[in-house]
Amino acid sequence: MIEFVILLGVLGGWFISIITLILMLVFGKMAGLLGVFLLVLGIELNKFLKKNYMDAVVSNSPRAKEIARHIFEMNELMLLSSYVASLFLYEVIQKYVEIVINVPAG
After folding, report:
1. Nearest to residue 34, comparing CAs of 23, 18, 45?
2. Distance between CA 24 and CA 30 in Å, rounded?
3. Going by C-beta distance under 8 Å and a sequence separation of 6 or more, which residues neighbour residue 76?
4. For the chain, how big is the Rg over CA atoms in Å?
5. 26 or 54: which carries more pLDDT confidence?
6. Are 57 and 9 in contact (CB under 8 A)?
7. Quick check: 76 pLDDT over 80?
8. How many of the other CB atoms lie within 10 Å of CB of 3?
9. How far apart are CA 47 and CA 41, in angstroms?
10. Could you give the 3-state DSSP secondary structure of residue 79?
11. Between vectors from CA 73 to CA 3 and to CA 29, what angle results, nearest 5°?
């Protein structure tokens, strides 16, 4: 189960990053605000899974629960950092396009 949670955090991060970047490149920077909706949705899903997982942990050892809590926090950080990375990539792509268009080849 915990491997699924980690995979969900990684795939969710990539999904948020790619969708936000595509929306901003196609529709402009303000369309990136739709990525905030995806980010909040991902964080709420993570909180829901955390609540259910913590209730279902078979071993009631404090160490197992502490490790699980850290993994869920790591997932939230991955989701947040993926959104920030998409904003950064958008700026880099815009500057690259600006430089390539302004400086003619030759």
Report:
1. 23
2. 7
3. 43, 46
4. 18
5. 26
6. no
7. yes
8. 8
9. 10
10. helix
11. 105
